[in-house]
Amino acid sequence: MSSNVLFFGWNRSVPGRERMSAEHFQAFGEYLGAQQRKGLIQSFEPVFLDPHGGELNGFFLIRGESVQLDALTATTEWRTHTVRASVHLDKSGAVRGAAGDLIQERMGMWLKEIPTK
Q1: Sheet strands side by side (includes 43-48)
Q2: CATH number of the CATH domain containing 30
Q3: Which of 4, 17, 59, 102 could form a disulfide linkage to 9, CB 3.0–4.6 angstroms apart?
Q4: Measured between alpha carbons, how far is 45 from 87 in angstroms, rounded to an integer?
Q5: What is the average pLDDT across 21-49?
């Protein structure tokens, strides 16, 4: 499984737009499922966080090779989903990241940049 991830998270539904959020959640899951079946991403997982008073309450973790994630986010379909989400979700956004085997690589890069004095 790829260690390249795309994180799409949100705080909560905008009050009064909860039904829109539920419908889009279903549609976004179907979209990602289609991308996975076509081999355009490796996997995805929706996550709901328990209430904790913070500003991140749910996310989709999407995995794929770097070129797959680049291609995914360059499509009009992806941009339409993110714009649509911004209409009904508070503090929604996407960010690339690393997991798994890439953590050691990133930590090594970081350690090399720490000033010695």
Answers
A1: 43-48, 58-63, 4-10, 93-98
A2: 3.30.70.100
A3: 59
A4: 22
A5: 98
